[in-house]
Design goal:
The protein is built from twelve helices and five strands. By secondary structure, the chain is an alpha/beta fold.
């Protein structure tokens, strides 16, 4: 549906705009409503699990995405469908408020909360903490609720804990290289010149982010792909920029032990990425 919306804004031909606008309204006002009605009627007579996750759209509005998984009473197929994206108050996303919004959604659609048998969510404390969490509020309504934490998040937490046993130099090197180069358009342009000189495909340096659980392996692999280019870049940077940060990065890039750690991380973290 959002594709149609984009097309409406980008079209210049008046007849095309009218057609796309009509199709958008048909999808939104007819097809989508009919599909939601079918989902609701199925959930009223079926046991189902809910998959809950929070998100932020491009306008910075907080949303709670509610997916449902159940066995179709019509053909016996296992279906996973979006029930609703619920708008949240960004100033208060506490467990009680999340559950209140979720429960109001079910009441509005006349879906019995007792039909829920399972909950799947990430490991955020607001969702799964022993006390005062979304899962606990739901369990008060559904005592036999089965809770399944996100295996992607769990796997990433295992990898993160294990990586803390390695020298912090590895993680610091990834962060320092990215902040040193990506923070300046001039330095990015100079790096591209090095890539062209060495006849290597230009690849954007990845930022290590705590909330993107499986990014570490990709960051490590990208640094290794550009290891020699980065060494040559920082040889010049040390002379021209005369900054201690550049000297530290160059020392790390010249350290074979650190490179060995990077090679190990690239190999072992790939298993975690493939696992999920």
């Amino acid at each position: 549906m959002w594709i149609l919306k984009i097309c409406v804004h980008r079209c210049t031909n008046p007849s095309d705009i009218i057609l796309l606008d009509f199709l958008y309204k048909v999808v939104k006002e007819v097809l989508a409503k009919r599909e939601v009605e079918k989902i609701i009627s199925n959930l009223k007579i079926s046991k189902f699990s809910v998959l809950i996750d929070k998100s932020t759209d491009i306008t910075r509005n907080k949303l709670m995405c509610v997916l449902v998984k159940y066995v179709s009473p019509n053909n016996g197929q296992v279906l996973t469908q979006l029930l609703e994206s619920v708008s949240l108050d960004a100033k208060d996303c506490s467990a009680s408020k999340l559950f209140e919004s979720f429960k109001n959604l079910l009441i509005e659609k006349e879906i019995p909360i007792t039909n829920i048998v399972g909950l799947a969510c990430d490991n955020a404390s607001v969702m799964t903490e022993c006390n005062n969490s979304f899962a606990q509020y739901l369990k008060s309504e559904v005592p036999l609720l089965i809770t399944l934490n996100c295996i992607c998040h769990s796997s990433a937490l295992v990898a993160s804990k294990a990586c803390k046993q390695l020298p912090s130099t590895c993680e610091n090197l990834i962060r320092n290289i990215h902040s040193y180069i990506s923070g300046s358009s001039k330095r990015c342009a100079i790096l591209r010149e090095f890539e062209e000189f060495f006849n290597v495909e230009s690849n954007k340096l990845l930022k290590l982010c705590n909330t993107r659980w499986l990014i570490l392996q990709k960051c490590v692999a990208r640094i290794l792909e550009n290891w020699e280019i980065l060494k040559n870049y920082f040889i010049v940077a040390v002379v021209e920029d005369k900054l201690q940060t550049a000297e530290i990065i160059l020392d790390n890039l010249n350290n074979n032990k650190i490179k060995a750690y990077f090679l190990f991380l690239k190999y072992v973290l790939n298993f975690f990425n493939n696992f999920v």
